Amino acid sequence: MGYKIYLGDFLRRLRLIRGLSLSGLSRRTTPRVSPQYISLLEKGERERPSQKVVDSLLRALEVNDKESQVFGVLIRHREINSEVVDFYLSNDDVKADDLIALCLIAANDRDPNTKSSSFWWNALNALRNTADQDFHDWEQRVIKNRGKNQ
After folding, report:
1. What is the pTM of this model?
2. 61 in Cβ contact with 14 (< 8 Å)
C-alpha cells in the first residue's frame, strides 16, 4: 500500500542514496546550509525552505530533473503518494507535467489497495487525451473512469 512522502522524507532519501551524512551534505552546499537545518527539514520541523536553501541543496545533491521536480512539488503540496513518486522516477516516458496530474489522481483515490503500474498508465493516458480541458474537468473524468480502467 502506498504511503505519504513528505519533503523531509524525500530529502533524507536523496541524501542517503548518495551516501552523505548531514554534515557531508552541509559541506557540499553553497551557500552553506547547516546540518542542524537539514536535520530540521528531514524531521518535518521546517517545511518551507527558502528558494536559496532549495537551490543549494539540489546542487549539493546533484539531483536529476525528475528528482528536482518531485522536490518542488513536495515544497508546494507538502506530500505525495509513495507509489506516484516511485512510478514517476522509474519511468522515463512519464514527463514532468504528468507529476501534478498523478498527484491529483492519488489525492482523490480512496481505494486502499496498491495500484499497479497499469493503473497509473491508464490514468495518465486519460489525462493526456483531455489535455484541452481545464484541471477540474479532466480530474473528474479520470476519477469517473478509474474503475473502468482497472
Report:
1. 0.73
2. yes
